[in-house]
Amino acid sequence: MSEGYTPEMLDLIKRVEASRPQRLAESRAGKAFPAMSMDQRDEVLNQYHPDYTDEGRRALGIGPNKGEVYPEELIDLLESRSMLESVKADLSKPDYETDVLVIGGGGGGSSAALTAAAEGLNVILATKLRHGDSNTVMAEGGIQGADQEPDSPYFHYLDVIGGGHFTNERSLVAALTNDAPLIIEWLESLGMMFDKHPDGRMKTRHGGGTSRKRMHSAGDMTGAEIMRVLRDETRNRKDKIRILEFSPAIELLMDKDGRCAGAVLNNLETGAYYTVKAKATVIATGGTGRLHYRGFACTNHYGATGDGLVMAYRAGARLGYMDSVQYHPTGTAYPEQNVGLLVTEKVRGLGGQLLNIDGEQFVFPLEPRDVESAAIIRECVGRGNGVKTPTGRLGVWLDSPLIDELHGPGTVQRELPAKYIQFKRFGIDIAKVPMLVYPTLHYQNGGIAINDQSETTVPGLYAAGETTGGVHGHNRLMGNSLLDILVFGRRAGSAAAKAIAAGAEPGPGTLEHLVQYGKELSDAGLDRGAISPMILPNYATDEIRQRRWDVKSPTV
Amino acid sequence: MTKSTQDNKPIMVGDRTIPPPDARFITISIMGQPYEVPETLTILKAMEYAGYQFKRGCGCRGGICGACGTFYRIEGDHTLRTGLACQTVVEPGMILAQVPFFPSNRAPDLDLDTKTPADEQIATLYPEIFRCVGCGTCTRTCPMDIDVMGYIAYFKRGDIKGGAEKSFDCIMCGLCASRCPANISQFNVAMTARRITGARLTPRSEVTAARAEQVRSGRYEPMLAELCEMSAEDLKTLYVEREREPDLAKPGEWMPKDQTKL
Ligand SMILES: Cc1cc2nc3c(=O)[nH]c(=O)nc-3n(C[C@H](O)[C@H](O)[C@H](O)COP(=O)(O)OP(=O)(O)OC[C@H]3O[C@@H](n4cnc5c(N)ncnc54)[C@H](O)[C@@H]3O)c2cc1C
Ligand code: SF4
Ligand code: SF4
Ligand code: FES
């Protein structure tokens, strides 16, 4: 079944098929396209990776990270005023009081909530969409953890830091790799259905940049399986965890000594605001893919708008590594309905190869992601060897049928069920014909700076997951983010418990810091009249935007 | 960039729909109201094109979160169809409504340490499965092509693991439950069964447990501290020199030359 491709594309696919027997023979003989040297990596990154060029970036003009150069879409949000700056609200009587407020219901937030609850604390978990609508649910490939015999946290550490070009916060890498086996064991005990051998041993594979096979998976729905298990477990802890859905945090509350005292939530449906007083607050709001840096398509869920970064920054938290963004090498370039969606690295882990318009390999399939992405951009944009789609996008082939040839018929369908269905819907059988891919905006490497106890630079404020920066340095390897969110989510929960046991108790929460921030913005001449956080992306057409007449709706 | 020509520049429009000049438009009806939208869009993007800004009914946009379950009919056809709004392409005459939430029953207090046999545990938590009339509506409704009736039948038969595996692709959209004449919340039964399967019906990984024990004993802390203190040059050398486990090595068979850091 391949009627999903145009006749022109089917013609080009013949070249892929023509070169396949030889590539197959080489793969079977253990011969791979040569990996790049460190110098070659630098060269392709400098010339073709979007992070290494000046286009679409500018220096931030306010706050603790003033002067650092970030993507403009993000700077626009940070250089905006708060919608709550001048509200007249009585903050003296909080609507909710709790020990721990967790902001964000992905894997990071859910694991923080479960850990705090296990320590006996009362938790409110406030999330913007449904609990679990997150980037976590989308992760397909797997989660790393050095639990096999030839492996250990030591080697995992080396892989993480090498993948991150030796720029990572080392203490965070140590925490990440040390806790990994504990996380795998924890998930197993919660009833996660890992891919296993009959005797219970985890099935593990290589990922980009790994020296040992330590990628654990649950089909190609690893993140979905983690998320539904964690969500189900929070529902099991109703005694301790209260979940507020469709209730994004809009701003943090700060006491007069600069300690975080909770947050203001907004009920998306009624528009009503609620204040939460908390002894500890954890931000776990995930990534920023929906800011669409430089017009790139993205793999992220609808709510990935960087709200946590904005709130924390206004409260004075330092950010780190925010200049660094991960473009996933293999985003779908065709069919149009799937554009931007991730094609998991597992395809390459299983032996799938990247090919240009002539059906030739041009890069080792498992280089670190930034190198792999830059190599694809070079092949398409620099060398003109990309395949053009009917809508003018470019891509290279990812030869998935090779997987069935290597590992036996049925492997693609068994190992990549979700991807298989996603393409089949549009008339493309990825066990028979290759996929067309191009780099897509995928992951925010940087974020709120934390230490190995998930503490931010603001007292009482913790952060975990994709909203933080430092663990992965300037480049993350697959399978280390699902791990990261759980390691630091759990560490945030424990650290909050420790602080509360030691008597942490903020004073009354105020929104004074917002007034201060607004004033700094005006003083610096940066006030464009814009407000943030974004909360929901806006994909309306220009016509609809104009028809909204810039008038507030009479109903909400 | 070296050889960049205009022709090699890809189109970059984020996730906004900008129809090409020759795009063809079709009429669909969103909750009874007609809108003109470009063909080939998914329901989700067509609704955004029409002017909707989602609060509910939209999550991953990639067919995996289950937020966007949708019922629709095609004008003139009696069949009620279902799909995920983010995965279903609009058709002329489509009349649609999303089901962003459906009240469901989740049995409280799942105990994974119990000694109760798994089949009894499911039967006690969800006795309503025995009222399934085998109508197959759930299976026909499922946008993930899961044999929902089939997995419920496994649970009735006491094959918890079999049903768990059959239900594995479930994204918990709730569409099956919305049509069940026996008022079963199939996806919650399956969720419970999968957790029981993962925790109780599958052997635990001994290798993982052993490693976790070593971590708890503090074995790796000095090794990691040493790496944290090391000069960048030395780290780079270790990185470049590290051995790579061969792709086709059998589990547990290959061991590195240097075993002092295991
Ligand atoms: C398609 C895809 C595939 C991936 N594959 C892998 C993989 O194979 N392996 C791997 O390790 N990693 C993978 N990743 C990365 C990984 O999934 C994410 O980085 C990670 O899950 C992020 O978890 P999180 O808890 O930090 O954020 P999320 O899971 O995104 O959760 C954040 C939550 O916060 C909520 N939120 C946002 N703003 C607010 C607000 N203002 N108030 C309240 N709540 C808010 C969001 O709605 C969301 O529920 C993948 C990512 C994507 C997108
Ligand atoms: S089994 Fe039910 S809840 Fe699960 S995907 Fe199918 S219809 Fe949705
Ligand atoms: S819809 Fe309900 S009654 Fe009908 S087969 Fe499915 S579970 Fe049974
Ligand atoms: S939006 Fe997640 S399944 Fe459609």
General description of the model:
The complex is a heterodimer of chains A (556) and B (262). Chain A is an alpha/beta fold. Chain A folds into two domains: 7-51 and 325-441, Succinate dehydrogenase/fumarate reductase flavoprotein, catalytic domain (Flavocytochrome C3, Chain A, domain 1), CATH 3.90.700; 82-324 and 445-501, FAD/NAD(P)-binding domain, CATH 3.50.50.60. In chain A, 33% of the residues lie in helices and 17% in strands. Chain A has 16 helices and 22 strands. Chain A has helices at residues 7-28, 38-48, 72-78, 107-118, 153-163, 170-189, 222-236, 307-314, 346-349, 369-382, 401-407, 411-415, 417-424, 481-501, 512-523, 542-547, and strands at residues 57-59, 69-71, 81-82, 96-103, 123-126, 143-144, 204-205, 215-216, 241-244, 249-254, 260-266, 273-283, 319-320, 325-334, 353-355, 387-388, 394-399, 435-444, 447-449, 461-463, 468-469, 531-532. In chain A, the strands form six sheets. In chain A, strands 4, 5, 9, 10, 11, 12 and 20 form a seven-stranded mixed beta sheet that branches. In chain A, strands 14, 15, 16, 17 and 18 form a five-stranded antiparallel beta sheet that branches. A three-stranded antiparallel beta sheet of chain A has the order 6-8-7. In chain A, helix 4 links the parallel strand 4 (96-103) and strand 5. In chain A, helix 5 packs across helix 6 (170-189) and helix 6 packs across helix 14. The radius of gyration of chain A is 23 Å and the shape is globular. The model of chain A has no long low-confidence stretch (mean pLDDT 94). By secondary structure, chain B is α+β, with helices and mostly antiparallel strands. Among the domains of chain B are: 5-98, Ubiquitin-like (UB roll) (Roll), CATH 3.10.20.30; 118-199, Fumarate Reductase Iron-sulfur Protein, Chain B, domain 2. Helix content of chain B is 34%, strand content 10%. A five-stranded mixed beta sheet of chain B has the order 2-1-5-3-4, covered by helices on one side. In chain B, strand 3 (69-74) and strand 4 form a beta hairpin. The chains are: A alpha/beta (556), B alpha+beta (262). Chains A and B meet through helix 2, helix 5, helix 6, helix 7 and helix 10 of A and helix 1, helix 7, helix 8, helix 9 and helix 10 of B. Bound molecules: flavin-adenine dinucleotide, iron/sulfur cluster (2 copies) and FE2/S2 (inorganic) cluster. The site of one iron/sulfur cluster has 16 residues of chain B, from helix 3 and helix 4. The site of one iron/sulfur cluster (SF4) has 14 residues of chain B, from helix 6 and helix 7.
